[in-house]
Amino acid sequence: MKVQPEVHTGTLAEKPIPAGHIAYRPDVDGLRAIAVLSVLAFHAFPNGLRGGFTGVDIFFVISGYLISKVILTTIANGTFSIADFYSRRIRRIFPALILVLLACLVFGWQFMLADNLSALAKHAFGGAGFVSNFVLWHEAGYFDAASNSKLLLHLWSLGIEEQFYLIWPLLLWAAWRVRLPLMPVIVVTGIASFIVNLATVHHDATAAFYSPASRAWELMVGGALAHWTSPQGAHERSVLARVMASIGLRRELTREAWFGESLAIVGLMAIAYGLLRIDDHRPFPGSWALLPTLGSACLIAAGPRTWLARHVLASRPMVAVGLISYPLYLWHWPLLVAARTVHPEGPSAAVIASMLLIAAVLAWATYRFIERPMRSGSRNPAKVALLACCMLAVAGISATIWAKNGVASRYPEIVQRATEYDLNGWRAAMRHKRCFMELGQDASQFAPECVDAGNQPLWVLWGDSGAAAMYAGLRSIANEAGTIRLAQFTSSQCPPMMGFDSSGNRACTANNKWILEKIASLRPAVVILSAMWGQYDKSSLPATIAALKARGVGRIIVLGPVPTWSDTPSRITFNLWREDPLHRVPPAHLNYAKYGLGQADYRPGTFDQRTQTADAVLAKVAHDTGADFVAITPHMCDASGCLMRESDSSGTPFYLDIMHLTPAGSVFVAHTFRAEIGLPGKAGQR
């Protein structure tokens, strides 16, 4: 038997334990419970515990502490083995992860469109390879699928931990073999990572969030604590004792019970303050991550015999949650996303609570019947080989589905066409990042091609991404007319209204000011104002029209919003086909009273997103200011509903998502109102 130090009320207590093992700390499982419950609360009710996502940072500290503790203990005992270490990690991590990945793929096959299933398969492949953080890092963007629709979004943190497990044991072992002092290695690695974190969080927040280089310091905090309480940390402890003696403090100070109690309280307060004060609007991780990170370190360092550890963290309910925290973390997010997929209008609190309850039951069952049997006993090569083969099989299945673009052949050809998602083609049609300014761009980046050359009368399109989507249609009818030139000035989340303060686009106000002055210099014959009007306060629109008139614009056209949906028309169509007992193809007109955004669930006193309300407001503004109003909704809707594709026999989709027209949809719509704006077509055309 070897003698292994154990943290005890901020002290080092000697306790004999088997070689190759570390003393069990029920209070650490209680800390795991705080971490996972915080994450669950944030994901289920994001407006409740706004800093709940920092529970992941608590997990990082715990992982850094426990893994470093195991490595240092086995090194000290002379029992360290790379093969044994990775065998234990595989038996710990793989069983629950394999089950969750397979469950998500089955769900996606049954309920997801091809593009969504393809994305899920890519994420499952990244999860099986523990590189989810890199996959998600390179997906981030305004028109990327919303985070709450990604079943495996939460695996980014598992990717960072597994990358740590892959590199850190080898680094520590190599440093020990060449007799480098281990604490400086840990501290230097942690400081370097923290500097990367601070250097990137303000100018590339996505990189700071997902990169292991900017997250490693959190694991290093746990690693430093593990080293301090290990046999290898004896030198550092003696140095501290001498420093304390030199300033008149007793070296036994840290052994005093009150010291550990105080450290525990400080740690809990730091975590609690972070949960309450940190939110997704603050740069994170950055320096704010110090709160959950150092708070967790304080709670672990305080030891298992403080009042807080014994009566709260080590209590039976907290330990029970901590023991299933890993499968609970894996299960909860896919279930919440599945609920949002089935209830696109937003699941009720009761539905969300039921999903959390199901997650808890699945987590317990996974832990009891899958995880524990796989982890029990000594290293078993057969178990490890089986788990490795299963994970490779999951990766292979995921790669195949991804390579086949979600296997759209699962449903009929017309449904395949009606549910296509061509983001690249859509971006090309809207002249993305050239005449449509994405978030992070400003008006100085509008390309020369945004204004047609020539001497014909100029028409200017000004608006947000909805206006940019309309450009393809305006381009089509302008080319057919052959009598006008077009200019396009569109910005993301930025409607054509002076002084509009967009919470999503900081450059909006400056962009609109630039566009207004550009219009004054271009002296166009017509300005078309277009936007997803139902999403905005339109009170500054009259002043904008007046400003255009003051700058010599003779005609101003306010283009109404297109019908907007509570879920993407493609997914509505797919679900209607899937749920129909005879699998009949749904009609081109979808029930707008049922599926229109803000239609069925509108309540007086809430923000009104209905297109008919926006049309009424815009018509009045146009009448009062002398502008022309052109409504789009009457051209796309009738008593049976609103078009999501051209006809019952055509599968060509009109919508990219819930509100942006595809190029085909834009061209169709533009031809319906071309006569209203003064661009009649050729004979036989709309």
UniProtKB/TrEMBL annotation:
Annotated SGNH domain residues: 445-674
InterPro entries assigned: Acyl_transf_3_dom, Acyltransferase_3, SGNH
Entry's transmembrane regions: 58-80, 92-112, 182-201, 257-276, 288-307, 319-337, 349-370, 382-403
Highest taxon, organism lineage: Bacteria
Presence of keyword Transferase: yes
Keyword annotations: Acyltransferase, Membrane, Transferase, Transmembrane, Transmembrane helix
Record domain Acyltransferase: where: 27-367
Gene Ontology molecular function: acyltransferase activity
UniProt KW Membrane keyword: yes
Name of the protein this chain belongs to: Acyltransferase
Source organism: Dyella acidiphila
